[in-house]
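From the pipeline queue, job 12 of 40. The input is one protein chain; the requested action is below.

Action: predict structure.
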Amino acid sequence: MDGDRFDSFARSWAAGSRRRLLRGLAGGLAVAVAGGARLAAPNKVGAQAGDICGPSDVVCVWPETPQECCAPGYVCTSRKVCCQPDRIPCGGSPGSHACCCDPGQGETCNPAFDANPDSGAQCCIQSKLKITQLKLNDIDDKTLQYLSAAPHTYFGGNTRVHGTITVVGAKTDRLTDVVLEVLQGGSVVARGQLDPKARSTLLTAFGPKETIKIAKSKLLFNIPSSELGNIDGSANGNLTLRVRAISQDEGETTKDFGAVALLVRYTNGNRYGGRDEKVGGDDWVKPSVKAVLEHFPGLTWGDMSNMNGGKFKPHKGHQNGQEADGWFAGYNARNAATAQTIIGHLNDATHGSRIAKVFVTYSASPCDVFCKAITGVTLDDGRRAIDVIRPVSGHGTHFHWNVSP
């Protein structure tokens, strides 16, 4: 085939290859024959006549050449094979073969291959090690939908994740670690470690039943605040959660939990009341909501959402990072002047339309002075003020905002 067709074929087979693709392809075929494993990509090569690894490439230390590299996100093996980050590199020096096993398909490295990659042994073998059940919960032991993913000091600077898990494996094997991985944009940006009590339950031999489990929801993982700083919280988005179980004999296996919405911390000083440390704080919001709360001068803020969202007593709401209690000087009078201040918030040219509901304690029937001040008022965005500012008991000393994301 001509050069253009070859380049097109090579790019479709392995993203990111640059030079010596024939050598990479040949090496990949040799590994496939030796181990039957799924190869991710051949190596990229550089460091000759100015043709060096790109700034995002993973530089590999291989003795045969001055510098070679794998595509961004891939993992170097010892024998010039690049593995995807969710694969396990197998085989090593001395030897001429290496491969990448897929724990998601129940594969693990064959110890016989690792001991002698030139022996002709199958590289990957099917492992008994599997996570057969996984449920992650918030601190109220309800299904986790949000994750507090910013530096903080609550619970010793850890975001807590509760849940249940079942892992099966060979009776002679034992679990050595279970880790919660937080992914953003396909890359692991933070890791949660087992809580000591969960660790004492899970890190043991599988035994005759070949099963280790935590059947009742409890604290499983602590994600250190030092790692949460790696997460980009500048915009609304989802994080992907994955649990990795590692055993003594059969390598590792993973199970995806799925996506959860990102919550960040409101850190400005215009707050009132305590911070509800026992529920992981009261200052968790979606990034876009944080921008709205920061925008309005003269307001002080109380409860938002607690750690990882979810139920937050005594509130009926405050579960999704979109609600906040606030106050301003003169609010408690709940008179015509109070009404005009709130209408001013709703008419703000930047974020007024984002305020979906305002809860205030006032009488709609008979219509009191506050009610009369908002009746017949049309907001700048066309909404009726009385449809947005709703009479809700329990809001005599603070108002409540429901902000659209």
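Job complete. Residues 1-51 have pLDDT under 50 and may be disordered.
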